[in-house]
Please model this.
Amino acid sequence: MLLNLTGLLTAPFTWLNLLWMFVEVLVMLVIILIYVMAALYGERKILGHIQLRPGPNRTGPGGVLQPVADVIKLLFKEDVIPAEADVAVFKIAPVIAFVPSFMTFAVAPWAPNVLFTDLNVGVLYFTAVTGITTIGIVSGGWSSGSKYPLLGGMRGAAQLISYELPLVMSILGVVLMAGTANMAGIVEAQQKWWFFFPQILGFVAFFISVSAEMNRTPFDLPEGESEIVAGYHTEYSGFRMALWMLGEYTYIFADGLLCATLFFGGWHGPWLPGWLWLLIKAMIFVFLAIWTRGTLPRMRSDTLMVFAWKFLLPLAMANLIITALVKAAIAGWF
Amino acid sequence: MPAVYWHSWLVVVLFLVLGVALAFGLLGLGSLFRPHQPSAAKKTPYESGAIDIVEAKEVRFNVRYYLFALMFVLFDVETVFLFPWAVAFNRLHLFGLIEAFIFLAMLGVGLAYAWKKKVLRWQ
Model:
């Protein structure tokens, strides 16, 4: 990265600096859009190979132009709004679901001098903003005026809020170890070793809940296509449908960044520049998300909630207590 | 040199503005190309071809969704209280540790009670 993004935060305010901030956010947006195109192709290709078929291979060399063709197709599709829908809510719901996924990137710590923001509540901001997506999903399901979206929306709300608790609890273990909720501060605290090793229990709770938060197989009950057609986005078509997908894929990237930052040392790594390390770690997470989708069956809806409340939440709470006790013992408080 | 506090939030606002602009921009771009030919059949709710008799807003769903929402509110407020404790752990010292454990224990009792009362069972 040539731009010194952190310099913009420390420099006094000028309109030129505001313009540069705007440009840096715009660059991030373009990077995310390129990533989404790559992820769409990568996911279909990887799933294809997992299922012993070639995947998309007709559009362009090796099918690489498939996502471009998909986007063009979606742009030319009619935007059907059902007669029974609550039009205003129906139209705004995918936007509410997508925008927070992009806003999470504000706290991504790419490198010591490549920070968009320096929020001391970085991790809390991340979890708070992702919570808004739940509102988008439940209002999208409710406003469609159709049964399957309603069921999908209710399922989505119940699942997302249930898994948010073990997620936040497992993050608290990391915050406790680092002594800060600042994303860059958490990365700096992992100078010697990754938090993955001392926080292994927390990581298990984190990884499972973050997979559930992404609404993807094995946790894709809100859109389980064999039970409730397509769940909360059954009635959506054209580019509004594309916005749901955009939000979903952006979240995989954002959660990959969060996972790498909290447990895998963020920008730390030999030889390569910091932002590249973070990107590599996040992309490994994205690959894992696709891999689990290709190999695991969907969870049963009755076991889903029980699993979050009776296993993951106590696990994350136990991890927090153990972390606090060990930290106090090392500090010699007893 | 320390970062200027409100500059970070300015960037957050820029993220919000650009995110909304992208969403509406793409939808606006689509409206230049896409056809608009609504018909009564297209506008019916998806029902695999059958005509629906009950409106979706009259469909009943499981009351347990509300129970879980109530439980969530309790525990989510808990996590908000635990964040400051986790950050200020060293300064609060043993006092803060014991306080936080009492707090966690009370919520643990709440979870155990809900468990015993079969609130967490999904049937």
Summary: The CA atoms of residues 56 and 119 of chain B lie 27 Å apart.
